[in-house]
Amino acid sequence: MKKIGIFAGTFDPIHEGHVAFAQAVLADLSLDKIYFLPERQPRRKTNVGKFSDRYHQIENRIEPISKLSILTLQERRFSIDKTLPQLTKLAPDSKIVLLMGSDVALHLKDWKNISQLMMQVDFAIGMRSHRDEEIHIAMRTLSTIAHLSAQYSLHRTNFSHMSSTRLRV
Question: 128-133: long-range contacts (C-beta < 8 A, 24 or more apart)?
Answer without folding.
Answer: 128/101, 128/102, 128/103, 128/160, 128/161, 128/163, 129/102, 129/161, 130/102, 130/103, 130/106
